[in-house]
Design goal:
356 residues; TIM Barrel; ten-stranded mixed beta sheet; binds iron/sulfur cluster
């Protein structure tokens, strides 16, 4: 069965294979630690999990994330198993000395199609201060070169907050030089270490998303906004369509035809096996050690509520764009304590309801 129905299967699954990471990034969602947690899912548990994820039947994208997934020695065994079972695998390694060309070649040979590196500014000093590691920018450049040599396609993830918003135009030019296939711009959700950073105002969100939508018309790479589904509303207002929807890549990690949101086309599995709507909406709905991730995604109360746009509250609940957008459920939860509340980062005023 192949389905695009988000009630039945997620389009993307992110599995935090470990929380171990050599970096201490200011905005780390995972509050990553230098050492691996002995309670992480074991290799056997990971292989069993992959088997279950394959049973969704829609060949979801599986993002092996962390922490730094390269800190797991069994990483490529897990990736091989996922690829063999039809999952489309990508990897988000940390740009440390572990991200060598040899490992990038191993990544490709194990079925990984794309690697995503984090860069938060074109200015190395700004980037390094974000990442809490001097020389991180240079290391990332070296890791990108290693991935290019291994013929992996490359995605860049950028977390944007008040401190680096002005860096984005210069960074966009740099990405063009690197030949990346996708720029995934994460709008900060104040969780983990990111709680200490200053959020963008609603108007700044709107301005940056508007600029990204203009850029997307001429950039040689695809642009995706993460934790900012109002990007789809802005694209729709500009062009009458949701650009990027259904876009096909040569690496097979295509864009969904409908908007993904926390718990709606997206599922996150923590290093301990907890299933959550996303890595930024950390409400555990069950654990893969005791329950099927398929059952949790399809039937748990929180996932079902998040997929029901009728359950949205406030402005998002009465917005004509709620199907296309729906607001960041993670930011609503982080800022209000209610995952169904209106997204406080959106300044849009919904059109008044037509007189009945
Ligand atoms: S009000 Fe909510 S649903 Fe409407 S565009 Fe803004 S975030 Fe999206």
């Amino acid at each position: 069965m192949v389905t695009a129905d988000f009630d039945l299967a997620p389009f993307t699954i992110a599995w935090e294979v470990t929380r171990a990471c050599a970096y201490a990034c200011q905005h780390c969602r995972a509050d990553a630690q230098p050492r691996r947690d002995p309670r992480e899912l074991s290799t056997e548990e990971g292989l069993a999990l992959i088997e279950q994820l394959a049973s969704f039947g829609n060949r979801p994208i599986l993002v092996l994330t962390g922490g730094d997934p390269l800190m797991r020695r069994d990483l490529f065994e897990l990736a091989r198993s996922a690829d063999d079972r039809g999952l489309r695998v990508s990897l988000t390694p940390t740009a440390t000395a572990l991200a060598t060309e040899r490992r990038m070649i191993q990544a490709r040979e194990s079925g990984i199609r794309r690697v995503a590196f984090s860069i938060d500014a074109a200015d190395s000093v700004v980037h390094d201060s974000f990442r809490g590691f001097r020389g991180s920018f240079q290391r990332t450049q070296a890791a990108i070169a290693a991935a290019q040599a291994a013929e992996l396609s490359i995605q860049i993830n950028t977390t944007v907050c008040a401190a680096n918003a002005g860096e984005l135009p210069a960074l966009a030019e740099q990405l063009e030089e690197w030949g990346v296939v996708q720029w995934s711009v994460f709008f900060l959700v104040p969780v983990g270490r990111g709680e200490r950073l200053q959020l963008l105002s609603p108007l700044q969100h709107e301005e940056i998303l508007g600029w990204l939508s203009e850029l997307s018309e001429q950039a040689p790479f695809d642009i995706k906004a993460t934790a900012a589904p109002q990007y789809r509303r802005i694209l729709h207002q500009r062009t009458g369509r949701t650009m990027g929807a259904g876009f096909h890549y040569s690496d097979g990690l295509n864009r969904p035809v409908r908007g993904v949101n926390d718990g709606r086309g997206f599922m996150f599995i923590s290093h301990l096996g907890e299933v959550m709507p996303s890595g930024f909406l950390t409400l555990p709905a069950g654990n893969v050690r005791s329950s099927s991730p398929v059952d949790i995604y399809r039937h748990s109360e929180i996932f079902r509520r998040l997929r029901d746009t009728e359950a949205l509250k406030g402005k998002c609940g009465r917005c004509e764009f709620r199907e296309v957008c729906g607001g960041s459920r993670a930011r609503a939860y982080a800022l209000t304590g209610d995952p169904l509340a209106s997204d406080p980062s959106c300044p849009y005023e919904p059109a008044p309801a037509a007189p009945g």
